[in-house]
Protein 1
Amino acid sequence: VLCCLLVAFLLTVNHSDQVSVQAENVTDILDEQNENVLEALKSESENILGLKNESYYELECDCGIGSIYCHYNTYGVKICDCRTDYAQNNDKCERCYCGWYATSCAFKYNKKVCTCPENYLLNDYYEKCVGQDPSIDRVAPVKHFC
């Protein structure tokens, strides 16, 4: 009986070594395939980005005096990052100020749009956000906008 157990033990050890060797070979093959795929993707992306493509050039990007940074998004649309009190109007940064109390200033269809916080009003004459008591700010009559 002891002899049978010893033979069975040796057979299982040999079989498990064989399985682990086969498993190592499979993982080596998979690792090699992954490396090949990654290398191909890297090469392709470098060509797309222009790192290896000699015909690649970067589009000139200028948003004017009030800009901090200019770039094109993935759709080719020009994006201007503008300084404080400036906003993008078409493809340039333009002065955009809606007063001390404004939460934002932007352009929509070439017209300045001011966003005022709750309890503040937009004064159309001065295009600024003012308190609800216009006499305090000494401005023309206000119109409810926000």
Protein 2
Amino acid sequence: MKIAFGVCSLGIGHATRSAPIIAKLVEEGHEVVIITYGRAADILKKEFPYLKVYEIPDFPIQYPERAHQFIPYIFMNSNKIARSIFKAHKNFLGLHEEQNFDLIISDSRFDVFHRNVPSFLIIHQLRIMVPLHILRAGILVYNAYISRFFKKILVPDFRENSLSGDMSHNLKIIDGNKIEYIGPLSPFKHRDLPRDIDVLISISGPEPQRTLFERKIMKSIDGLDGNIVITLGKPDEKIRNDDLKIYSYLTMDEREEIMNRSKLIISRSGYSTIMDLYAIGGKAMFVPTPGQPEQEYLARYLERRGIAGYMTQENLDLREIISRAGNYSGFKGKYDTRISVENAIRVITEWS
């Protein structure tokens, strides 16, 4: 079959978690065409140099510097966001006329579907955890409306003991029969390696918050004991520090190895990162990206469950956050995400 695979371009997590499903589809002999944009496109081009990648812009969201600016930003730009989705959908329909897809899979891209072609949506955030309940309900209603155009909604989480909490559970508006919980998706796996890195600090996310996070880390890193490794998540950035191991960018294989070697990981609380940690295992402490309600909710949710703690970027103190890590159980790890991939393929096959 010729399969269109849409991937959201907000961050790189959608690209990395989609990679195992894309690889499995290719392994089964399908022709996969990727639709994405920006850094996500760069990553998938490197991972699958033999596949066609079409760049169609999706959400024009730039996260504000301060959390309280998020809701005004959404209100002020709602028309722009809606227009961009309709424009992207029109562009996709044009691509479909050219390519004649047999099947469509979309990771969090509401514009990649066709009424007359079996379409499937991969998404973990059916309820966006914004502070205003009326806005949260409105987004849920919109997601319920959009879900009508997809045969099934594939949630990369468990039905019980979930990693995403209310973001993808306890949904009263969306038809529950459409939702399939396939399990976490990650390109990583647990490896039995010596835990010789005391702290891995992973700096990532959209600008300007990525750079603000980096500056906070660099100001408070001096004097920390142990083997400290920092990843910047930006290929073109170079920082020299003879006392630290700093990587501007890591490939997926390199990142898997370093995460498996780390006793503690300090990172953003993006859902893809959480799924990676669930697959690999180990201790984690989170610094949610300011202005991203999803990350703020997930950090609080996992702290309530006793799995991992968090600290706001504004109040970040590396010594304190490291000392508190022992209060949490960490992620057990060793989950084989091939199970989730098989679940996804099974559902898609049954409903195509």
Protein 3
Amino acid sequence: MDSSSVTGRRSLHPRRALSADIATREDITMHPLRPSQIQSDNEHGYLLENTGQRVCDDSNQDNSHHPLSSTVVGSHRPRLNPLKSWWQEVALSLLTIALLVTIISMLRAFNNEPLPEWSVGLNLNTVVALLATLIRSSLAMVVEEVLSQTKWTWQRHSRAVANLVAFDEASRGPLGSALLWFRVATSSGFSRQSIKSSQFYAAFIATIVGILSLAIGAFTQQAVKSVPCNIAVPGANVSLPLVYGPLDGMTMRYGAGLFDLDFATKGRLLRAFTGSDTERQLLIRGCPTGNCTFDMIAPGITHTMSGFCSKCLNTSHKVAQVYEAQERFNNTSYVVMLRLPTGLAVGPLIEYPVHVLQTGRGSSDWLKSELDSVPDYSKAFNSSAATVNILSLSTAGCQWSEIRDEWSVWHDYECPFPSERANRNKTKQERYLSWNVAAASCALYPCIQDMKAEIKNGVLHETKVSEKIIYPVNVSGEGHVGMFISPCFINGVRYDIPESSSTKPSSIGLSEATSALPAQCYYSVPRWIFMTMAIQDWFDDLLVGNCSIATNQGDSARVRSWALCDGGLGARWWLSGFYNRGNATFDSISTIMDGVATAITDSLRLGSIAQYGLNVNNTVNGTVWRSDVCTEFNWRWLLFPASLIVLTLVSLVSIMAASAYDVHKTPVWKSSILPFLYLRRSEMFTDLPSDSLQEMKKAAREEQVVLRRGDEDRWQLVKTKKQL
């Protein structure tokens, strides 16, 4: 082709100039690009294939003579509307936000709730996984189009065809995205201008999103977790009884000033010495699932009730060694006894039976100095229905070793008490020094207790949070021993004794209740229960006695662990609980006395519902729970997909802005392959009035081609006539 023909064609429309060379035949072959047909000029431009015409790249900013782009670069063309070209990607981005909001809303709605049961067979995890997959797919489609569009803008500079391939493969999956910038770098596709461009940042962010989007499903699944939980059972009831009313059925008067307790209460008292609390399960009313709770009326407090409490004072320091004369075989000898000021004594070891435990009732006058130093103890002992003194030998805290001689085997004990010890080479008569001692004085008194209760696996767990001593005790008035508490909370309303009143709470009787101080704020125990404990012999029979060990069986740990009470006749066997198999301590004695107080209180509570039934005055109601599997929502795991959505939006906005403000007004072709076909200088395709993607798609619907081998045995796309 000569130069004149070339010049002449320049006067025509560029597209028409190409069509002038098309041969008029039915099938025209489109030949693939061959390296020999591309002639590089220099770093500022390139030559069009088979024409020798130079077209400058973007570095020269002059494409006015490009035969394929004169309709693109003209300054008369208006600025592109990015929303018109990118509306699908914008819609997908908004869809990802909506999907993430849906996931968050669902997980919040079912947080700490049972797993939903849907009739279609889906569960919450499946739905979340499905939505996460849609989020990843939508993000992948957006970043794919961002990378695909960058493929075209990247080639505004003269670069190797390998760059087009690298961007195209990056838009197809995470592997291509991971290798993109390595491939671009190895094909010399970087320049200072390209790195600073917004298209580069958009593509770089898109590759990051494409790679990290693989983990969206895993992170989203971590946000929802199935955990065991308790669910309230509608319509199920649970209640615990409180002490209420005179409870005449618990005592029996059989003479002037003579009363007796019912047998059930006595049985509970005996069980207190053995540490058994199985009877406490009788307090549970309802709770079919075995797991129930009660609402808090104050921090850590589920209910307040009256009853009996116990306080013990450690009196081990009051124990003294006393030498007592003993006549034996017309001979007088002296033995050492361990004795309390009340007269309780234990020892000596050389006699049979040897007292190792002794208990007794008595006043607390001998403890006045100790009680005065602790006001609560002074009130408790002064208000007590019964005061019990306990003295016991013990091997707790002792070390022992086995000693053998020619005739026998015995044990040597080294104990921290008594402080006045014989020499270390003890004789048989001095073995009484091989014991420790535990001593306590305990008071049983009426009190008001703040409790925290719950039921787990069918077992009642009730803990005393605090207590108030009913003091002073007034047994001459009404049928109650009690007092008002102030402040008092009923259904969230606080009630107080008027500040102007100089009367102590315990001096105000139940009959003096008013609207300002309702009867529900009055807590008491039945008067006759208190009197029965204070004056009746049966309580002495319960708590007073002595125990010994069988010294004729030798001195060993096994013998010392066995206490025979009341001369081994089997009476008052429960007192051996104080001895605690030879390991009595102040704490073990206090625990038993707490159990005695609890047993009396439990009897009062059960007697209350036996006499008055279940009502709002004598019960505390709770909630029944059943075990289930619940959803736990950990929102922090969703920060990852949320971050990827934000990065995708940044990438999309960057490429849209670059398209809108591109001075060259590069068409938005994105991932379409049509530009590769229509921009190729070939006689095969129809000339187009515009290089817009819509025009290309319209023409693609009209033209038909076939893939077949040509004359040179090479695959070719050949244009054919449209079938009518």
Protein 4
Amino acid sequence: MTLPVVFAPLVPWPLIAGLALIAALLVGIGLLRRARGSLLRLAGLIFLLAVLASPRWQVQTTAALPDTVLVIRDQTPSMAIGRRAALASAAYRHLAASLPAGVSLRTVDVGGAGGDGSPLFGKLKSALAALPRRQLAGIVLLSDGEATDAPPARLPGDVPLSLLIPAAPGETDRSLRLLSAPRYGLVGHAATLSFEVRDHGVDDAGRTVPVRISVDGQAVRTLDARIGRPETVRLPVAHAG
């Protein structure tokens, strides 16, 4: 419990204690001898000691800090596929409009034009370090697929974490895995690549899907690849570099 009175002594506390002891002895002797004015001297000494102790009335003014919902929003290139961006924007607006009074929204965008995937948890770790723990009301990941980085070793155990996936019913994740590629190629000769198409969350191994191959940004070939099975393609090496 915090006392409403605080002290800012003008002299060290040991000196005040010594003066109080001397004053008590003098007043006590005066009272025993029934000297006139002893009570008046006692009042004066108490006032002097109070001035030296410098008591001050403490008034505390507190204000509740708002709870914060942390949103990690995926804006990597894969979010531009289909209606993902529109669905994600609608979900974000709905979330922002649904927050009760006293709850704020902090948004961290994960973007990039490269092919490094969605490093969601790296951004999450940085955002958690900058946010007071007692204000964290919840974490929302707004992403279209799997994160490409490992989650932090420890997340707040009592804070809800939700994942919103902007997708239409029946949509699945598809990945292309490069199985082998030559370390170098000779100009004027063909280089052989091996790859595999995988669908996640659905059993459609053996079904064929079109795979478009581009060289220097230009489509040079389209072939039908079987899902879940290795495929090999030979491509000409037109120039060095």
